[in-house]
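Running co-folding for uridine-5'-diphosphate-xylopyranose.
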Amino acid sequence: MKITKICCIGAGYVGGPTMAVIAQKCPDIQVTVVDLNEQRIKDWNDPNTDNIPIYEPGLSEIVAEARGRNLFFSTEVEKAIDEAQVIFISVNTPTKTYGKGKGMAADLKYIELCARQIAKVAKQNKIVVEKSTLPVRTAEAIKSILDNTGNGVQFQILSNPEFLAEGTAVTDLLNPDRILIGGDTTPEGEEAINALVDVYANWVSKDKILTTNVWSSELSKLTANAFLAQRISSINAMSELCEKTGADVNEVAKAIGMDSRIGPKFLKASVGFGGSCFQKDILNLVYIAKSYGLNEVADYWEQVIIMNDHQKRRFSNKIVQTLYNTVADKKIAFLGWAFKKDTNDTRESAAIYVADDLINEQAKISVYDPKVSRNKMLSDLDYLETRSDEANSKALSIFDNAYEACKGAHAIAILTEWDEFTTYDWQKIYDSMHKPAFLFDGRNILDSKELESIGFIYKAIGS
Ligand code: NAD
Ligand code: UDX
């Protein structure tokens, strides 16, 4: 079976970049990305591709090349489903905020809606691909909906989880470590797997395309995120011990990372991991383990989240303690609000929680982030519902450059590792601040010796 028409439901951080790269690398395949969110689709269709809704290095150039040729963004969900041979489901699967599994389980209502819509519209056989991150055995539920409410059409369900990281989405998609495709071991299942393998084989070598059964594929995605996050919580746990003992966490990370069995990546101590995936997926893993009665397994993974929450709180506590146990009416400048550099995404960013803690202590926060809008920062804080929206907008002032944000501040906190922060004239910033001037580096990106020689009281994580 040769694929010529793909539809992707969900034009978000995964659907948008993933489909843009498929369209760029497969000019013979028509790729249509659909979403219910009209504004998002309008932004993807903005004539100036610098205004597309997701900032990722290299993405606007790819969209400029493929859009209108074989890449389309549309709100006509049913038409796109009807026309496509392959439908990727790339919608959000957030943590449930209600009912059974509240605060732990993945909310599958958007996935189920997609399955029902596909069942309603499809008149020919289709391959349905789970691109969203899903609990193991979700394909069973999707299949049941498709088979029982459909029009007698045959569906093959594949699991094809996405491993891209934000900020490096384009390079990750162009040079993936692996592509994982899970499907049924029946002849029809294998035919569907092979059809999807052929799409990726346009730019990924076949030895990097791994095929498995559906359940292994679904569970591998949760496992990969759990292992990655676990390394960060492990090094962050050590960072606290380093602070007590005179060891330096960067030196420890380098020393252990040179062991080829451990490896150097994902050992950067920080104010805590953020992003839309790690916390949500581990909570979901914990919930799944508990639902099978595997309490030790659940407790083991839950500790990764407990450690991460502790690390965020520890950072705000340290600011308060160091500033003589009070930050009331003091100005604390935040450099960075995004959950990591090179993205405008703020979901679960440590900055939100640190700001919330400090505002509880009646601090005034002034923020600069190169890519995050004022409205986004305020809505992130409002979402926590700790205080009124008016109180948040009084406590948070937002600047479009770092020098203004830091002027008159008692302390600076680095929350995101944006490269530009390492290029600043720190003497100029120091001169504009209250003295003593404190700098809390939540990302360990600045040079302690240089800052201390200027006069800063510099506190990094883990030293
Ligand atoms: P997102 O919120 O950015 O995008 C999801 C989009 O789906 C939204 O624009 C929403 O309007 C749309 N949508 C929801 N229901 C719909 C429906 N019924 N019909 C049409 N559109 C609908 O989410 P995301 O970050 O792209 O994540 C999507 C999935 O991919 C999640 O399961 C996530 O866990 C997984 N994932 C995310 C990343 C990442 O880095 N963000 C990486 C790997 C996997
Ligand atoms: C993650 C996975 O890496 C990716 O494979 C998956 O598809 C989606 O989830 P993402 O959340 O976009 O990607 O970014 P990632 O680079 O993993 O960073 C997550 C968080 O961990 C960020 O807040 C980052 O700053 C933090 N981090 C990362 C550390 O604190 N230390 C590290 O060593 C690495």
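Result summary
The chain is about 45% helix and 15% strand.
The mean pLDDT is 97.
Job closed.
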